[in-house]
Amino acid sequence: MSFEWKGVFPALLTPFTANEEIDLPMFEKNLQAQLDAGVHGVIIGGSLGEASTITAEEKEQLIKHAIKYLNGKIPVIMNIAESTTKDAVQQAANAKAWGAAGLMLLPPMRYKSDDRETVEYFKTIAKSTDLPIMIYNNPVDYKIDVTLDMFEELIEYSNITAVKESTRDVTNVTRLINRFGGRLKILCGVDTLAVEELCLGADGWVAGLVCAFPKETVTIFNLVKEGKIAEAAAIYRWFMPLLELDIHPKLVQYIKLAATQTGIGSEYVRGPRLTLQGSERDRILKIINDGIAARPVL
Q1: Domain that holds residue 72
Q2: What is the pLDDT of residue 64?
Q3: 244-296 pLDDT, tens per residue?
Q4: How confident is the model at residue 1 (pLDDT cuts 50, 70, 90)?
Q5: Could you confirm whether 164 is annotated as catalytic?
Q6: Which residues on neighbouring strands pair with residue 44, listed in sequence order?
Q7: Model pTM score
Q8: What CA–CA distance (Å, rounded) separates 47 from 62?
Q9: How far apart are CA 86 and CA 218, in angstroms?
Q10: Active site includes 121?
């Protein structure tokens, strides 16, 4: 299906049962909550989806199940996070065969490629598929910065059409627009900078806490795009302690606990991650429950 890189795209959690199997009923429950809130697409197999622990077979299961459940209402995007170019090309082919509408593409995993290697990696994948690609630029977590000069080379490929902007430098939104105009759609990839980047012209939001609070996330996006900044800011201020759960190494455990508390997820994770316990769990649970208690009326 054709779509635009605009709006709210949840980076979906991968729900597990207590014995670490995929929990499809819970997956459907969260998908329905996202649909009901009005999100514009979903991303499967990203960092929040525990990409490093799910198998190719499980990714296929999740992609196909989501496509069947959503029935064309919104696009299903597949994340690619591989260590080798060959494997990434294969994943792009798999995504096409399984019916995904587009790709979110990380730089090579494990090896810190230089600029030339990173560009060649992205180019090789882009020319292997006709699916639209969003480059995930997150030098904070993945140690590789996709610079403006690198994007200048990458946009030779017409299917490289968007960037998930996670540099944590909001001025990069302006630099991208100044350099490329509307050639690349820009989606904020850091929950705690979403309103700032949307106000500066970002087209969308690849969101994390949306997995637990979909309606609030979509409402903020819609209000900003309608120019109702004060109304958006009021919800954003309430949301901020929760959004900060997205910028911690344990974001998966924290956001899964939040989704459990809002009834659209479970806190089970797959090893080596462990569910939270003790004072850490109590501290995160208090942040979540305080947020739920003060949840704004939309």
Answers
A1: 7-293
A2: 98
A3: 999 999 999 999 999 999 999 999 999 999 999 999 999 999 999 999 999 99
A4: confident
A5: yes
A6: 78
A7: 0.97
A8: 15
A9: 37
A10: no
Strands of the chain, DSSP E = 7-10, 42-44, 76-80, 102-105, 133-137, 160-165, 185-188, 204-207
Q: Please pick, among 121, 136, 142, 236, the residue that the annotation labels catalytic.
A: 136
In a domain, 2, yes or no: no
Q: Is residue 285 part of a domain?
A: yes
- For tokens 């909550």, what's the residue? 33
Is residue 157 situated within a structural domain? yes
Find out whether 255 and 209 touch, Cβ atoms under 8 Å.
yes
Structure tokens, 220: 């903020």
Catalytic member of 59, 121, 142, 164: 164
Of the candidates 249, 41, 19, the residue with the CA atom closest to the CA atom of residue 132: 41
- Specify the pLDDT at position 174: 98
Tokens of 30: 């969260």
Select from 47, 49, 37, 52 the least CA-distant residue to 7. 37
Task: Return the pLDDT at 161.
Answer: 98
CATH of the domain at 253: 3.20.20.70
Annotated binding-site ranges: 206
**Where is the binding site for pyruvate, in residues?**
206
Q: How many domains does the chain have?
A: 1
In this structure, the dihedral spanned by the alpha carbons of residues 263, 49, 235 and 283, taken in order and rounded to 10 degrees, is 70
Torsional sign, CA 254, 256, 260, 262: positive
Residue 178 lies in a domain: yes
Residue in 260, 274, 269 with CA at minimum distance from that of residue 21: 269
Largest CA distance in the chain: 52
